[in-house]
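Course exercise 7: structure representation. Students receive a sequence record and must write out the corresponding structure in token form. The form below is the worked example handed out in class, using ABC transporter permease (328 residues). Read each field label carefully; the graders check that inputs and outputs are placed in the correct fields and that the protein name is recorded exactly as given.

STUDENT ID: A-19
EXERCISE PROTEIN: ABC transporter permease
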Amino acid sequence: MSVEADPAPIEPEARATTAAVTARPRGLVGRTFDSDLWYSFRRSPVTVLAAIATIAIFASALAAPWLAPHDPFDLASLSLLDSLTPPVWMDGGNPDFLLGTDDQGRDLLSAILYGTRISLTVGFASVAFAAILGISLGLLAGYVGGAVDTVIMRIADVQLTFPAILIALLIDGTARGLFPHMSREDSAFYVLTLSIGLSFWVQYARTVRGSTLVEANKEYVMAARLIGLSKLTIMVRHVLPNVLGPVLVIATINLALAIILEATLSFLGVGVPPTEPSLGTLIRVGQDYLFSGEWWITMFPGAMLAALVLAVNLLGDWLRDALNPRLR
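STUDENT ANSWER:
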């Protein structure tokens, strides 16, 4: 009778290799939680708190129609008899208005929620416009070069000599002079987006141009040229994905700057109209009553603006450090 020999035991190294080969590929969520970026995020308590605050502010602004106890845009529901009502914990407060009212009788809590949504909408739209314009011009200047590069960069150098607020005021005045038939309510959003976007495109253009000059001399770009791809295809399909890393950091930081600039323009009276108040408009309205004791009209919108800008800035600073290979 023949006895079959037992199979040879599998070594631990072989088991590990076999398991690695037969393991199913991880999904996007698994790769995200195993990444260095996630490790850096969860190791920073300040960044985690900033992310929670940002998400909370964004969510409350998006859900303003459901969270706000009143509609501050419904002029028929406003009553001047409710104007300048103090917060509920002060003498003379009304439980219907937790944070008090402004000079038109609008509930301040509702106005802050809706105003934050307006500020965020203008901020995101202007940053998107600036990014698209700056990335396009930066790619064109860095890849084509020559006279095109010279013209675009000289325009950028000239614009850098002007403060962003001055450029925004100039564009705002020019737009209102060219289109006098448009009402302020209809044109405010577009004028603000154009003004702030044209103030920020230079940073994207200079950053993308520098990265494009580096990428244009690499082997994969030369190979794309050899197989006959057009310049536009090479720029969009091959160069653009490799120069977007720094752009993400700039966009995060510029979002906070755009919100501040929108609030500044609204504070100066060239932003959104008083019938659709943003945070800057509420602060401007409250300034007229600050020294007469109605401090809540300015303080609460100012606190929301400061919290939003601080949280976004902290996230931008963390993202800049996390994506910097020299700090790893």
